[in-house]
Amino acid sequence: MLGKSGGPSANALNASECLRIQERKMKQIISGGKKSMKINSLLFLLIILLTGCSQSNVQNQDIKPLTAEDFYVVYKGITINDNYNIENIYNDLSYSEDDIENNYGLVSQGPENGYRRWVLSYPNKEEPQIKISIMGGSLEPSEGDYIAGIDLNHAATSRGIMVGSKYEEIIETYGIPNLENKESVTYTKNNKKIIFNINTNKEVTEIMIDYNMEKANKDQGF
C-alpha cells in the first residue's frame, strides 16, 4: 500500500515491521521445541501474530497525517509559517537587542551575490525559544523575501513535542517517519519537513520546521 508521497503507507510499514518481529519470535520458539510440538506452536503463534498486527494497525490509524497546521509556530500569540507576511515581523515581535547589535541577526551572505540570511532569536540569543531564518537581498529582515525555517529551541510543535521529548513520544505522536537514521527523525509533506535531532539516549536535542532550507542554500550560492 502506498502513501501520498508514493512510498509505503504508515499502516503498511507498521504491519511489515510487526510481522518481522512476530516471525523472529516464532522461529525462536519453534526451533527450541520438540518436533511433535512444531505444528501446534506454529498455528498458535500465527494467531498471535495476526491479532497483534491488527491491533497495531488500529492504533496507528489514530495518528493523523501531517497537515498545514503542523508547520505553524505560535509565539506570543502570533502564528508564523512560510506564508507569514515578513513585513509585519518588527511590529509583531520586534527585534531582540542581541540581534540589533548583530546586524539584525545577519549570519551569512552569498559569496557571489551577497544574498542574505538572518536568524532572529526570540526572546534573546542566549536562551531562545524560537529562531527564525529569513532570506533576502535587502538590509534588514523585515524587508526579506521568505522564511526558510524555524528552530524550536524551547518551544513545542503543534502536537506537543519539544526538546527533551523521547523518541518513543515522537513515534506515538507522528507515526512512522519518512526518513530516519541514528541522529534524526524526519517527517515530510510536499517540500516541507519537520526534523527531530536525537542523541544516543533517544532524546530530542533540536527541532526544525524546514520550509525550504535547500532553496535558501541555492539562493546564496552554497
Describe the protein's architecture and organization.
The protein has six helices and ten strands, in the order ααββααββββαββββα. The protein is 34% helix and 24% strand. The longest helix has 27 residues. Helix 1 packs antiparallel against helix 2. The protein is globular, with a radius of gyration of 23 Å. The strands form two sheets. An eight-stranded antiparallel beta sheet has the order 3-4-5-6-10-9-8-7. A two-stranded antiparallel sheet has the order 1-2. The N terminus is likely disordered. It has 222 residues and is an alpha+beta fold.
Low-confidence stretches: 1-13, 53-59
Going by helix content, strand content and strand pairing, the class is: alpha+beta
Describe the global form. Answer: globular
Q: Give the neighbour order of strands across the main sheet.
A: 3-4-5-6-10-9-8-7
The percent range for strand residues is 15-25%
Tell me the Rg in angstroms.
23 Å
Number of helices: 6
Largest sheet features: 8 strands, antiparallel
Order of helical and strand elements: HHEEHHEEEEHEEEEH
Count of strand segments:
10
Mean pLDDT: 83
Share of helix among residues? 25-40%
How widely separated are the two ends?
A: 38 Å
Oligomer category: single chain
